[in-house]
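Researcher: I'm comparing several assemblies side by side, and this is the next one on my list. It has 811 residues spread over two chains. Same procedure as the others: predict the full complex and return the structure.
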Amino acid sequence: MTVPLLRLQGLTKAYPGVVANNNVSFEIGQGEVHALLGENGAGKSTLVKMIYGLVKPDSGTMELNGTKFAPSEPRQARADGIAMVFQHFSLFDALNVAENIALGMENPPAMRDLASRIREVSETYGLPLDPYRTVGDLSAGERQRVEIIRCLLQDPKLLIMDEPTSVLTPQEVEILFMTLQKLRAEGTSILYISHKLEEIRTLCDHATILRLGQNVGECIPSETSAREMAELMVGSALQTPERSRRTPGEVVLDISGLSVPAPSAFGTPLKNLHMTVRKGEILGIGGVAGNGQDELLGVLSGETLVEPDAIKFEGRKIGALGPNARRGLGVLAAPEERLGHAAAPDMSLTENAMLTGAVREGLENRGFLNWGAAKEFADRIIERFDVRTPGPENAARSLSGGNLQKFVIGREVLQNPQVLVVNQPTWGVDAAAAASIRQSLLDLAADGTAVICISQDLDELMEIADSFAALNEGRLSAPRPTANLTVDEIGLMMGGAHGMEVAHV
Amino acid sequence: MDLSAINPVLLIASLMVAATPLLLAALGELVVEKAGVLNLGVEGMMIVGAITGFAITVESGSPFLGFVASAIGGALLSLLFVVLTQFAQANQVASGLALTLFGLGLSALMGQSYVGVKPPSTPKLDIPVLSDLPVVGPILFGHDMVLYFGIALTAAVWALLKYSRVGLILRAVGENHDAAHALGYKVVRIRILAILFGGACAGLGGAYISLVRVPQWTEGMTAGVGWIALALVVFASWKPWRALLGAYLFGGVTVVQLNLQAAGVAIPVEYLAMSPYLITIIVLVILSADKSGAPAALGRNFHASR
């Protein structure tokens, strides 16, 4: 083998209280697709930020093509042929596609030339884009195209992709992979960060696994099973949630002909939704982000009010009831955004427990709050759901994402809901915590609760849901039993490839 | 009551003068807000600029030096806002209000010995033939340089924001500072420069009041123009030419109501005096029906964390 494209040696970066990367070394070969695997908080993002010049390592060296490489800022890294597609898109909603791309380039040509080059490159790689559209109006998949094309216009030697597929439909993923394989054939190396192991097995030549900031192993993904890789990532054997057999009972929640206009300029209107959920059933609702998930949760939780008879709970018309009235009846919800929507970041866990538990747990009495009972309730959640925190008096903000997620889901689960609606219950949560959250949803259903799980993680839905429906541009497909659904069918339910096509060259 | 005493040519010429302080301050604040910073200290920076420009003009005898000094004075005061918000991460609204209160007090202190002094007059453009033309002459060719500078600055800010790379980066920073940082742009540095530019413009606008429009020094003489400038930026949907339009509207109504007062119209003076503020805001509210243009990161502090 010749000189590797990039060699990392002993990279270490510490933040107050955490060592994000501890003595990490690995190599990326020319034209290699290299996977970087790890749980949330394993230090993947910090590592790529060092390569991209956003963060300076405390110690350790990097070599690019055999020469020393220490970018002090992204500009320098870009000049050396390193390009990055960010996990949370680094795009500007109010600017158009061409302007966004110009911002990521060193010496952008005049706008008109740039626009024609964008057209050219986007056609070549099968990622059609109109340079003059405003980015705020684009779908998640299209936004990612903007980022990828921004990188491709600079002829990168190394393309870093941070969790690129989390927002794509299966068909879009397939096309993305074709594009990446084409790039590899042209000699571009790719550093691919993900925790979707099957994807890595199909795409990547080599994988490095990080755990708690350390390089804990390397493997050839095509010769390693997903389970082995997962166990390397977690450091212990994985527990798969168990499904018990259950027969769904009578319909508890019945939604028919529900239409809601878009709440804001960048929101999605809900169009003529129909669904029923039975006792003990888990209904999985899939779909790419931004297709009406948040709006649907708002309607189900009571944040958005609709006509009374659009939503029926055990025959009662509850469409016009607010969240607290619905809580009283037993219809509970846990929204996606942990900090700011599901929990008040600067309030303690006790106060957060009070916020949604007051009605069902009897934590208030004629307007007076019973803090003792609230603390007891918070303690119960912490104990039952293994929330790692010094105590319920700590602010919600101080918890890690996974722990806070366990808390906000646990808070609803412990209130004995009749219907529980969750949105992205395991988003950004590590595998062990995700497994325990999923298990608790399964247990809840086994006890007769109807669960609606809105998620973008198809594996999760396949694992726990009894039936699956897809949300696409505010429309809900007819639910189908998950038992014999294939990935292709799911992809088509989610709206197919959204006009993407396979690379032509 | 004698409305025939009002001369429409002089009216237009003087509305341009009345509008210029507002225009300058609004353009400065527009750039600041496009960079994602909300500086409510415009009034304070204006009045400090007013006294700095006034004092330097009186001492040096040169209005040109005075205007330069006023821009520097406004920028210096805005430096305080920079330290508070960009380095100490203080709340922008509170810091801006503090800046206004501080500027009002500071200017009163600085101006104690200048009350009642008459400054040297600012020279006006005098092109032989052109300035003597009827109607067109006084309106287009009979003003001082700062007024023309204000119009040129409108065009410059517009072109800069729309067509230049610097303008694109500035808008990007105001739109999404995290993304701009991730792409390697120096968010804090760009914001500091924008704030200093805003301070200089506000100072210049203030000096225009004390040196040209009034011209003399009295405490609190900016009389809320800085606040109107803030409102103007919002209602102009962050568009420079609309800010110019709004400023001229405000200037126009101000001049008209002064003329009406002089002509003895039977409307209570208080109503006339409030009319410029009221009419400007009403018109601009109607104009700004399209809610576009507000920088998404406006008023949010940026801190480069991991």
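Model: For your comparison table: The longest helix of chain A spans residues 170-185.
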